[in-house]
Sequence to fold (842 residues):
Amino acid sequence: MRILHQIRPILAALRSHKTAVMLLVLEIALTMAVLGNLVFIVYDTINRSHVSTGIAESQIGWLQNIGVVGQDNPVTGAENLAVLRAVPGVADAAYVSPPLVYAQRNPLFIDPSRKQPVAQVYEFQGSQGLVDTFGLHVIQGREPTLDELPVAATVTSDAVFPVLVTQALAAHLFPDGHALGKLIYDGGGNPMRIVGIVDHLRGEITGRVDDDYAVVTQLLLGAQNVGGGFTIRVHEATQLPQVLQAAAIALQKANPGHVQNAALTMAEARESYFRNALAAGRMLVAIMLILLVVTALGVSGLASFWVQQRRRQIGMRRALGATRRDILHYFQMENLLIVSGGVLLGTLFAYALNLFLMHRFELAHLPAHYLVVGALALWALGQLAVLGPALRAANVPPVVATRSV
Amino acid sequence: MFGYYLDLALRSLKRTPILTGLMVLAIGLGIGAAMTMLTVLHVMTDDPLPGRSAHLYTPHLDPLPLDYKQGGDGPDPTDDLTWPDAMALLKAQRATRQAAMAGGSLLLRPGRADLRPFYVDGRYATADFFALFGVPFLQGSGWSAADDAAGAQVVVLVDALARKLFGTGNAVGRMVRLGEHDYRVIGVTRDWQPAPMFYVDASAKRYSDGDMFFLPLATAVDRKLDVNGNFSSWGEDRAETRMVSPTTTWLQFWAQLDTPAQAAAYRQYLVDYSAQQKALGRFQRPPANAKLYGLMGWLAHENLVPGDVRLQLWLALGFLFVCMLNIVALLLAKFLRRSGEISVRRALGAKRRDIFVQLGIESALIGVAGGALGLAIAQLGLWSIRQRPDDYARLAQMDMPMLLGTLALAVLASVLAGLLPAWRACRVPPALQLKML
Fold:
């Protein structure tokens, strides 16, 4: 109660420093607005970097192997897959590039005239064994059997490809829930019939809903020699780097004319995919910390000036019976009031900034608990910043009152 | 008077070293962050060909059918030209110089045991490319329009690639195997890479390594060499014919127009050409859709600055603003605390203006110190940007104008921050204050 009784004189005293108080409130409000939104952006990035692509990432690696026409490449596509499967530790292999490594979005249509795209989807086109290699979970329908797969060497442009789509895409295309058996079309390729639905397969992780829109097509690879991306899945995740290395050597040995070998585990692919966003996140965290330091310096700088300015008044209060604790509380309370004003205004600013960022940069809505955390941080920061000057004020001896400054 | 005020300011700042340090630190951090991001923006939107860029233009036609709908985040087909349109513009010779071009990536097989085959990026272009952009030659020269017509099997290499293949000796006259064919080297250019790479297609990286070789465009089309760029098609799309198809855009086109009148005439020519094509039934959309962009205008249209860089720029400027607020509050406290001193000066005859100038100089002095600190912080910030994996990152260096700009911005910011406190201080009623002394 004693503290509450102090509020009125504090407000009266602040009224004679209107401009400085306003500036401080404004500074705290802006800090809060920037802080709330930055924490949100950084937290979102970190969250995103942990979203799964839907494939068995810890067991999957990717090999790039590009053939040179006219060079000595006696091995066929099917044999390349066999070479990879024969490497000890390899559970499965397919001719395909995994998510995050190579992801391109294509328009998808549900009418054969292809006039109005209904979605932008990631198309994964590869050889037999793709579904098992990725470790996809078919939750409805079934995976096309080997006999059903179109044979890559002889396929005609009107053949209907049996494909798998993700649950999210199926629900988007056919909200009535009857996606199985329906025909869909991409920009220029063959018509595709949905024979199965997998739970998740994200081509990229951007935070958009349509990250999880994917179409999986398998072709039966036979005698033709294809170069490009091979994906392998190993039995033991811990063995992945060694097995991948062995697979790269085996593939190179079978194809002496192939060039440009790259081998990448999904962990590495993920690291490189998010490197940029996380680097930017680190910079934002740095800005955030510096901002907090600057605000704290401002608060404490102004507080020490006020303490110096009021030395005589403090001395008088002490002489009239105020304890050191009273003086300390006075300055702490004053700071609490100013920061509270800043937090209130800052809530408004934070939402305004969030609206602006949503408009310009496709950011999501700022959840309220970020503001609560921001407010708590600023209250704590304010108290910390004012502690030094307030202690100095509490140490002013009562005798100051009797001296002229 | 200036010297005296400067002396007063120095004394005043020395009297409160901690507060002065705080203000210098605040302005330094704010300026450092802001200048880091402004420098990134500066290098990303810099003029790639100073001196030439004002005369370079890129024409754009709209050959799309009326019912064509742009799908999702795909490329805009009208960013590029079709082969028939590019050839028509080329043959019309309405500009001082003009060239059509497209990016290509070819497997290079060095005839040496110690070098494995590797892929190189280069450009397929018509003869005027070199003169149009002022590409400097070290040896030999480019090819002629006749070579273009004949689809000559010649290549121009960039110095770095020529050295890699042939050492320091003369490369002209040597043969290079690119893809499945041999080409005779007729010229070697200096390592030449405009930043940003304004003439590449939207799918290319604008700040990464430049072209390593140049081949005649006709040769590339004859042999259907691999193009690394967008092919946007709205009609029949077959791999064998799409390079010369009238319904597939993939070529970039640049022209040199020396005077505004020439540019206006060229713009009119594009509209006329579109009208003519529409009359022939090939184009369906209004001829006025044809556009002529200047080089810098085109870069602005392409919007090269990624969203995260813009976001960080806004944040840095916001940060600078918070720092300035901080300084306003601190200066206000500092100046008002000197009411007594100011009143004495006023009583001795100083005008309000004199006080204002004196306090302004004090703020500016803080700005100079803060600017110096800001420069150091900006260098640190730019160093951290250069560690990023983005293609523009390695360009993040401060040049002289940005360096001076940093100091100017720091002084400006601190003087602005000092305005309100100085105004408040010079309005202190002297009589009242003197009584209290």
Summary: The CA atoms of residues 30 and 259 of chain A lie 55 Å apart.
